[in-house]
Amino acid sequence: MKAPIQGAAICALFAGATPALADVSIMYPDWITALVEPAIEAYEAETGETVTSTRLPTDGYDRRIAVDLAAGTAADVVVLDSFMVAQLADAGYLASLDEQLADWDQYQQFMPALLDVTSFDGTAYALPVDTDVRMLWYNRSVFEEAGIEMPWTPETWDDVLETATTIKDETGIDYAFVLPAGTKQGEAATMQGFYMALLGADTAEGERNRLRNWEEGKWIADSPAIRQVAELYDEVYNQRELTEPSINYATDLGNATREALASNELGIFASGSWERSCLFNCNGVDIPSPEERAEIVGWTPWPSSGAEGAEQGANVSGGWAMGLNAGSGDMEAAKQLLTTIFDYDNFQPWVVDNGRMAVREDIAASEDFAANDYLAAVTELSANTTGRDTYPGYQVVSSLIQDMTGAILDGVPVDEALEEYREALVDEFGEDSVMTLD
Amino acid sequence: MRDPRSSWASPWLSGSIPVLVLAALPALLFVGVLLYFTLWAVVFSFTDLELFGRKATDWSFVGIENYERLFTRRGFLESLWTTLTFTFFSAIVGQSVLGFLLASTLRRYRGSMRGTIEVCLMLGWLLPDIVAAFLWSATTSKTGLVNQVILGPLGVEPVNFLNDYALQVVILANIWKGTAWSYLLYSAALDNVPGEVVEAAKVDGANGWQRTRRVILPIIKPHIGTNMLFITIWTFTYFPLIYAMTGGGPGSQTETLPIFLYQQSFSVGKLGYGSAISVAMLAIVGVMSIFYLRLLKEPK
Question: Is B136 part of any domain?
Fold first, then answer.
């Protein structure tokens, strides 16, 4: 009963802002421009219609798309981080693709495991754009200056901390080990930082290294694994001061790590497979050749905490996706734009050129994808990967994790930060939906 | 017999109820629009409404839970303190005092120097917040102007100001940004102080400080009150410059209430809690406004 009133109010408020029905609109983050723009041109050439496109900075994009969809002002075709799909679909903002794309002959090419990530209740609500794995990137010239042997193969967190400490002592740089933290970069802090450490924290038996226990249907407020990761943050930011916290809050967040790398102020950086191009330029504009880039940076899989039974190289995959606004004024046009973007001839070159991991069988099987060494290596990492706990509510849990890392970075003791995390989870989901692992 | 109280109204208006109602409609609409958003926030502050997920459509009333959490959970009180510090130092001490000093000093000068300084002051004010944020962040970075031109030659090790002195830097940036307003307002106020009064005080043997303290300040007191009212409200709710520069960080060092409100509402997605924060902010700003409005009243 409440929803229609609210909906009507929102409609009344924003009626003036809805774009004309004849046009089809799309909103996307800056980094994906090289995939979207050629398709827009192709669509316009074919249909004679204009596409209203909104290209936004990647920072803060998640919030904008969620607010737009909630307010009913979103574009017809929306690009979004895959972790948001379940939640936004649950709220009824996204159109079911199983229905919409049933007659599109390329739909079957998408890998079922990846469509799973963008599904809710067994129905796909978005097409995956890419998937990824995560690792530790390192700056070869900084390592050389600090006298660290390469290729670098740390086996425990302690190895990483020791290496970073050596870097700090030998070179005096500001960002010896950047472990993403805090609220400003949103999901990146949860995925590239907290979650990657979490997966290798405790014994791999019995799903202990997660934020949610799926069997019992509860969020995990406290566990040896979560505690260990919180202590790792404390070690990096407070005990050893391996990085100046401000890099997590930089004014020009997207460029901060890139600049730090270029000026050799960055030692180790916990991030993902996209950095192969994004550490230079996500859209591949004016960047060194793949060989030259491999001379500048190296990467290594995340080690485990060193605890008994903890797993080496465990990984979590995310990726971005593209869906259709359930409230779109012209679903047919929106669908056509979507399938133009994902058409093999537009999609495949982008995947290979940008070193993205394939989400379609036919792209994975294509010759130049298979011939790419880097893609072969990261695909190997994905043998042992998992998804995040994208049960509805994950967005809140992830934000609370970011809050927790921010608090630790602020000097709040680990025990206190964990207790506050537990309280916040109980506030949100109730005592019955929250548990503690011993 | 006619009610004498209504004698001010035109007989045509007061004679017909429908016309009266019709004439009142625009006013009601205006008041309604003003109250609409505030009421919206007040109502939702008692709910668990969220931005996405189930509670986006299926929310329920939770009583005063959100208000309790303002005091029992980390965030609100810390942010309130940060906001008060930011407002006190950047608006009240910085912009207002600096604006007054500049206005009283510069009025003695005419010509190009005054013009140049005025233009420089205005530039800070006119520059978009986001541009200003990038400028300040570049200037105070380790390789920025301050380190290169001032600290470097003095032999001081470069300092990453946004890391080590984040709150101080955003306070300075806001002083730079907002002083022009106070300067303009005080300049206009000082122009209205009658020269004879100041002259008379001078003849009576009052020195410069005494003339300012006992003659000029009392005359421009209403202007000071107005200015304080404006800049306090603006600064208390000021968002873009700090958000772009630091996003509230490092940690929560520069997390003022507007940023805290934004984070809770749109990152965590708790619109209900966010509404409670905004209602609390409204109350705080309201109390401050009353304080200043009392200051504005002429002493009888």
Answer: yes
Instruction: Show Cβ contacts of residue B71 under 8 Å, excluding neighbours closer than 6 positions.
Output: B77
Number of domains chain B is built from: 1
Under an 8 A CB cutoff, do B250 and A410 touch?
yes
Q: How far apart are CA A274 and CA A293, in angstroms?
A: 13
Taking alpha carbons only, the member of B271, B259, B221, B266 closest to residue B100 is B221
Q: Establish if B276 belongs to a structural domain.
A: yes
For residue B245, what is the nearest residue in chain A, using CA coordinates? Answer: A251
Across the interface, do A88 and B143 touch by the CB < 8 Å criterion?
Answer: no
Q: Each residue of B36-51: pLDDT tens digit? A: 988 989 999 999 998 8
The CATH number of the domain where B125 resides is what? 1.10.3720.10
Residue B195 forms part of a structural domain: yes
What ipTM was estimated for this complex? 0.82
Domains, chain A: 7-132+317-386 (3.40.190.10), 134-316 (3.40.190.10)
**Rounded Cα gap, residues B285 and A150, in angstroms:** 58
Whether B269 contacts chain A with CB within 8 A: yes
Look at B160 and A263 and tell me if their CB atoms are within 8 Å.
Answer: no
| pLDDT tens sequence across A147-199 | 999 999 999 999 999 999 999 999 999 999 999 999 988 889 999 999 999 99
Sheet order of strands, A212-213 included? A212-213, A218-222, A434-436
Read off the pTM.
0.85
Contact A396 B50 (CB under 8 A): yes
Q: Please give, rounded to a whole number of angstroms, the shortest distance from the CA of B244 to a CA of chain A.
A: 6
Residue of B nearest to A59 (CA): B244
Q: Which domain range does residue B289 map to? A: 73-297
- Whether residue B27 lies inside any domain: the answer is no
Nearest residue to A9 (alpha-carbon basis) of B85, B49, B174, B83: B49
B162/A contact by beta carbon, under 8 A:
yes
Provide the shortest C-alpha distance from residue B250 to chain A (in Å). Answer: 5
Closest CA to A393 of A212, A225, A199, A215: A212
User: Given an 8 Å threshold on Cβ–Cβ distance, is B142 in contact with A174?
Assistant: yes
Helices B166-191 and B98-106: crossing angle in degrees, nearest 10, is: 40
3-state secondary structure of A281: coil
State whether residue B109 sits within 8 Å of chain A by CB. Answer: no
